[in-house]
Each structure stands twice: as structure tokens, then as C-alpha cells.
Specification:
This protein is of the alpha/beta class. The chain folds into two domains: 22-236, 3-Layer(aba) Sandwich (Rossmann fold), CATH 3.40.50.300; 250-370, HUPs (Rossmann fold), CATH 3.40.50. Helix content is 41%, strand content 18%. It is built from 14 helices and 13 strands. The strands form three sheets. It has a six-stranded parallel sheet with strand order 3-2-6-7-1-8, with helices on both faces. The longest helix has 28 residues, at 209-236. It starts with 21 loop residues before the first strand and ends in a 7-residue tail after the last strand.
Length: 377
């Protein structure tokens, strides 16, 4: 929930300017309603007495968006001459001189006209934030730098306008404006996104249903990742706070027993079902040298893990339960797969089973014990 600062002096007590707060509205594609939602919140805040202006608005001819902007002050754009043509861009200096509490700025990934003071609009936004003005902005998931290759594989389109990932990480709030792929296609067909002559081309290219479903998942996962990082930072700041993970992560504990292959397959199926990252772990005993046959077995486990798209981890330690628990904490594991004990009953009674030790060491992690056929001694 946006909580604007009350009108304050230009500088704080130490002589520095208060940095503005940044809220980003992100969506899977054009037309999901990011700008409309931003304007809607701007109106609500204006009614609460907040000084709100539109720093830059791109309606793309969408009548509903243009109507939603009515009643909000718009800072006029500035004109820039380039190659004999007059073009307009956001007037960053005019926004700063106006000193509103909140500026609404569309299309964060936009590239400015050559000759502008800054190359990208997000750089203009950073200057406005540095001046102590809060900013609401909009962007689509395909403009995120780290997802550029992924989006190109999904859609076949290389997105040229991109923003650094740090903008989402540094933002005070990120809101996903979400609709289903079917709803977005309906909006497109109804002419609410592009002009009629562009609809068929869009449906056959970027707006294909499978593209939209994949982009929607990217957007939702990206925000879930950000939320998880925030939760983790909060938990780390509190010594007694429990580990909290939003994404599932599966760890299979393998050994020199032949049933390790079966465990990897079961763990991989579990990870695929949960759409979760997959890891395999082998704990080396520093006091024991692996015979050739066992060493080859561990290599086979590593190869199989990688074939399933997993990461193979190898650590050394006397206390297997302690090493497994440490890896689980490091990789934020939520599901652990182990085989039933191959040890004799009297050894388990004397020193306890690996499962018992893990359950004592791990909290908020599910442990799956997979029954397998006993191997002959």
C-alpha cells in the first residue's frame, strides 16, 4: 500500500534530499491495464489530498485510458529537434521544478530521442526520485534485461528497449497487473489495444496464446522471486525468525547404494510436478576412500541429475545430517528426498537414523522417505 510522505522541506536535517519512493506496475504484455491501474490509483490519492501530476502518459489511442487521465494535471512535454524533425519527450526538469508529491510516468523502458539529456526514461525517473518526488511507473516483463534471451526464445522477438533488473529490486513496491491470456486476446480483438489493421498481425505473432501464457508465468514468477528475497532479508534480520520460502525447491540425497538412481528419478518427477528447481547432494566421508565401482556410481548419479536439468552438489563431512541441513539452508530447499535406511536395527538404535537427525535439524522442510528394494549385502 502506497504511503506517501507528507509535504516536507527540500532537504533533510543532514542536508541531503529525501529520495522519492518508486512503485512499479508490471504486466505480461501491452494491454493488461498497467497505465489504467496507475491512473486509477493516482485519482484516489489526489482525492486524499496528495499532490499528483502526470509526468508522461502514453495512451496509444486507447479511449478508456485517455478518459481515466481526465482531472489529473499533466506536465507538458518538451520538444526536441532531431534530424530536422520535431519530437517530444518527458520534461524531467519541469517535473522537478513543479515539485509534486507524486509523478505518474508511463513506459519505464522507453528510449529517449537522440540529443536528450539522458538516454533512457528510467534514468529520468531516477533523477526525479533523487529530487525527493515519488514516482509511479509502468513496464512489461519482456523489458527486463535478464529475461531478454528467454523472451526471445518464447516469442521469437528480440526486445530492444530494456531496463536493468536492479530497478525492480530497488523499487519500494512492485505490483503485477494480471489478466488471463484469453482476456488479453479478447481485448485485442475488441480493438482496445491496437488499431484494427494491426490486430491480425498481433494475434499471429506476439499475442499468440502460448506466448502470453509463458509471459504471464514469467511475470508472476519474477514478482514471487522479489517477494521471497524480501521475506528472506526480513527473516535474516531476526535471529529467531524461521526460514520462509515461496518457491518449492527439491533436494535428493544420494549415496553409494544402487537405489540412489531410483531416488533421483523420483525427485526429478516431484520437481517437475512442482515446477521446482532440482538438486542432488552427495556427502563424501573424508575418512573413507571410494572404490572405483562406487566412484563410477556417483558419476552416473551426477550425469543423471544433469540430464534432468538439476544441479549436482558434492560436499565433504563426517556428519551427513549436518551437511545436508547446511546445503538445505544455503539453497533454500523446501523438499528433501532420501532413501530408507540401509543400516542394521542395532546401529539405528545406538546412533539414530539419518531421517531422525534431519527432522531435528530442519524446520519447515518436508522430508520424503522413499522405500526401495533391499540390496543384498
Amino acid at each position: 500500500m502506497y504511503n506517501p510522505s507528507s509535504p516536507a522541506p527540500d532537504t533533510l536535517y543532514n542536508g541531503t534530499t529525501r529520495r522519492g519512493k518508486h512503485k512499479i506496475f508490471i504486466g505480461m504484455a501491452p494491454g493488461v491495464g498497467k497505465t489504467y491501474r496507475m491512473l486509477e490509483e493516482g485519482h484516489c490519492l489526489r482525492q486524499e489530498g496528495i499532490d499528483v501530476v502526470i509526468g508522461l502518459l502514453e495512451t496509444h489511442g486507447r479511449e478508456e485510458t485517455a478518459q481515466k487521465a481526465e482531472g489529473l494535471e499533466i506536465i507538458p512535454r518538451k520538444t526536441i529537434e532531431w534530424s530536422g524533425v520535431s519530437l517530444t519527450e518527458m520534461d524531467t526538469e519541469a517535473i522537478i521544478a513543479r515539485k509534486p508529491q507524486l509523478a505518474l510516468i508511463d513506459e519505464l523502458a522507453h528510449t529517449n530521442v537522440p540529443g536528450s539529456d539522458r538516454e533512457k526514461r528510467y534514468q529520468d525517473v531516477e533523477k526525479i526520485l533523487a529530487a525527493g518526488i515519488d514516482v509511479f511507473s509502468t513496464v512489461n516483463i519482456q523489458h527486463l534485461e535478464s529475461l531478454n534471451d528467454t523472451v526471445a526464445r518464447i516469442t521469437g522477438i528480440v526486445v530492444r528497449e530494456r531496463i536493468p533488473d536492479r530497478l525492480l529490486e530497488e523499487a519500494d513496491e512492485v505490483v503485477v497487473v494480471d489478466v488471463t491470456a484469453e482476456t488479453l486476446q479478447e481485448r485485442l480483438v475488441e480493438g482496445k489495444i491496437y488499431a484494427p489493421e494491426k490486430i491480425d498481425q498481433a494475434l499471429n505473432n506476439f499475442f499468440q496464446r502460448r506466448h502470453l501464457i509463458a509471459l504471464r508465468e514469467l511475470a508472476l514468477r519474477e514478482i514471487a522471486d522479489n517477494i521471497e528475497e524480501e521475506v528472506l532479508e526480513e527473516a535474516n534480520s531476526q535471529a529467531e525468525a524461521p526460514q520462509c520460502n515461496i518457491h518449492e525447491r527439491v533436494l535428493v540425497c544420494v549415496s553409494t547404494y544402487p537405489n540412489a538412481i531410483q531416488l533421483i528419478r523420483r525427485g526429478a518427477r516431484l520437481a517437475a510436478y512442482m515446477h521446482a528447481p532440482f538438486y542432488c547432494l552427495f556427502v563424501d566421508d573424508p575418512d573413507r576412500f571410494l572404490p572405483k565401482q562406487e566412484a563410477l556410481h556417483i558419476e552416473t548419479c551426477e550425469q543423471l541429475c544433469k540430464e534432468f536439468g538439476g544441479k549436482f552438489i558434492r560436499v565433504t563431512g563426517h556428519d551427513k545430517a549436518k551437511e545436508i541441513a547446511e546445503v538445505a539452508r544455503t539453497y533454500r530447499i523446501t523438499q528433501i528426498v532420501i532413501g530408507e535406511s540401509q543400516r542394521s536395527c542395532w546401529k539405528i538404535l545406538l546412533s539414530g537414523s539419518l531421517t531422525q537427525k534431519l527432522l531435528r535439524l530442519l524446520k519447515h522442510i518436508d522430508v520424503h522417505i522413499i522405500a526401495t528394494e533391499k540390496q543384498p549385502p
